[in-house]
Amino acid sequence: MALFSSSGFRLQRTSWVMVAAISVALSGCSLFSGKSKHEPTPLQPFTASMSSGVAWRVNLGGEAGVGFAPAVAGRSAYAASSNGTVVKVDLESGSTVWQQSVARSLSAGVGTDGRTVAVATGRGEVIALDDSGQVKWRAQATSEVMVPPLVGDGLVVVRSGDYRIQAYDAETGTRVWSLQRPGPSLALRTNNQMMMDGGFVFTGLPGGKLIAIDTRTGVLRWEGTVALPRGASELERVADVVGVPMVTGDLMCAAAFQGRITCFDINSGTAAWTKDFSSPNGLTLDPRYVFASDDQSVLHAFDLGRGNHLWKQEALKFRRNSAPASLGRAVAVGDYQGQVHFFSREDGRLLSRVATDGRAIIAQPIAVPQGLLVQTSRANLFLLKLE
Q: What domains are defined for the chain?
């Protein structure tokens, strides 16, 4: 059962225990009501100091809410939508290389390494395509998949709703390994993504854990604590790792809702530093900074080396930001009205703003050499150009 929040995520009950009625405030939002206690901050006029605009747009049809995020491999962008559509798009021109309908509906996508493209359905069916858009195989996961599949090292990896991480051979669809971790009965349904680096799959989990799994064997390499659940009620104890674990050098950083930002030594899992912080959607890194929006959509910057707080920007307060993306001298976030805002990485000043299609940007934007790749909840894929 999904408990709805207006902060861009849902709470998902993962057991069969049903709740007749719950009405509590969480981060200024009343679950089930769909309304926030706080009005989004109106956008203020400003003088742009950086040029930006839409380079191209591709519409997939359907919707692209929680569980959907674009992916990039080489010079191509890939995306999927709830109506079963998967596309490959040339990043330079925005021309569609191929478009395929693979199912009546999808719940998660897309993952790719440029050779295999993977998506999943709410019934746990994993669908792999080759890079010409033809279906290679279909396989069945143990439960629904609401996290985009991860493709790499010859594997398609999915995380299902029963907290099981499963790997399939990218060519045949044969299950290679499966690892299950314990989890709470109540968890956020927000945009989460796994990542692969150095022969390991990294994923955050409900309950505040970040784990590293050997891609060859499926053996757990290390488990780190991003946040510790606290509070008297089940809802107060929700402390889930959110967004995408991010790596730069030997550091991997992750954020948790009602928890902390924690940066780990990627080899040992030892915490380098932690900072109390509640994020509903994750963070991003560059070689010097960590950027994250808190549960009031206030954007913050931290020093990557020690975790010192550097600045905060309240211009988008309560506008239900996406996770940020770092590109050059700017850090970008999308909001609930499809606006993309570019701030100075050094001091948080607003540099530029671009309107998309008026619908929420839930997936984390992706910085690419051509600009910024953005997918909205209306399943429109945009490339934004910066100068």
A: 1-38 (no CATH), 67-189 (2.40.128.630)
